[in-house]
Design goal:
heterodimer, A: mainly beta, 11 strands, B: mainly beta
C-alpha cells in the first residue's frame, strides 16, 4: 500500500487567484495521479504525473489551467489557476501501490471558490 | 470524462441485511478495484480483483470480477451502521494504466 498526505485539506479562495495543492507519498512511486471530484459526483482523472516527464492530461483538462509538478518520486503538486466558482471541487491525489496495479488516495483538498 | 455504470445509485437498508451493488461497461477491463468514501475523506481501497472470474473476500465484503471482464459486483453481508458511505468501483482499461470510476452507490444503513 501507499500512505498519501495532501496539503491544504481545504481552502476558500477568491475568483481569479491560484492555489497549489501538495501531495506527499510515503514511498517512491513511478506514477501519481490527480483527480477532481465535483460535489456529489464521481472521480474524474485530470492528469497523470510521472517523475522526469511532462504530465499527461485527460480530455477537457489543460496544462495552463492545471499545471503539475513532479520533482521526485514521492512528491507532486497541482495548481488550479485563475480560479472560478466552477472550480469548486475536491481535488484528490493518488499513486500506484508498491505492487503496481492498485491505486491509493490521499484525503483530498476541498476547494471553494467565491 | 468516461464513467462506469454503477447500480443502484443509492439504497437504504436495515442493519443486518446483505447489500449488493454492481458495475457494468461495454469496455474490457484487466483490473477492478472497489473503494469506500466517507464524507470529507478520500476513497479507501476495499478489494482488488485481477483475473476474470476471481472471487475475493475482505471480512464481510465479497467482490467478483465478471467472466466477460466487463463487469464486477460487490456484496456486503450483515451490514452495520458504519458501512454507511459511498462505494465506487474502478476499472482499469485493458492496455492502459488509467482507471475509470463508477458513478457511485450511496449506502445508508438504518439501525
Amino acid at each position: 500500500s501507499a500512505v498519501i498526505s495532501q496539503k491544504p485539506s481545504r481552502d476558500i479562495c477568491q475568483r481569479g487567484t491560484s492555489l497549489t495543492i501538495q501531495c506527499q507519498v510515503d514511498s517512491q512511486v513511478t506514477m501519481m495521479f490527480w483527480y477532481r471530484q465535483q460535489p456529489g459526483q464521481s472521480l474524474t482523472l485530470i492528469a497523470t504525473a510521472n517523475q522526469g516527464s511532462e504530465a499527461t492530461y485527460e480530455s477537457g483538462f489543460v496544462i495552463d489551467k492545471f499545471p503539475i509538478s513532479r520533482p521526485n518520486l514521492t512528491f507532486s503538486t497541482l495548481t488550479v489557476s485563475n480560479m472560478s466558482p466552477e472550480d469548486s471541487s475536491i481535488y484528490l491525489c493518488s499513486s500506484e501501490g508498491t505492487g503496481g496495479n492498485e491505486q491509493f488516495f490521499g484525503p483530498g483538498t476541498r476547494l471553494t471558490v467565491l | 470524462g468516461q464513467q462506469l455504470n454503477q447500480s443502484p445509485q443509492s439504497m437504504f437498508i436495515q442493519e443486518g441485511e446483505d447489500v449488493s451493488m454492481n458495475c457494468t461497461s461495454s469496455s474490457i477491463f484487466n483490473t477492478w478495484l472497489w473503494y469506500k468514501q466517507d464524507p470529507g475523506e478520500g476513497p479507501v481501497l476495499l478489494i482488488a480483483l485481477y483475473k476474470a472470474g476471481e472471487l475475493t473476500s475482505n471480512g464481510r465484503l465479497t467482490a467478483q470480477f465478471g467472466i466477460t471482464r466487463k463487469d464486477s459486483f460487490l456484496n456486503i453481508s450483515a451490514s452495520i451502521p458504519s458501512d454507511v458511505g459511498i462505494y465506487f468501483c474502478a476499472g482499469q482499461l485493458s492496455g492502459t494504466y488509467k482507471y475509470i470510476f463508477g458513478t457511485g452507490t450511496r449506502l445508508k444503513v438504518l439501525a
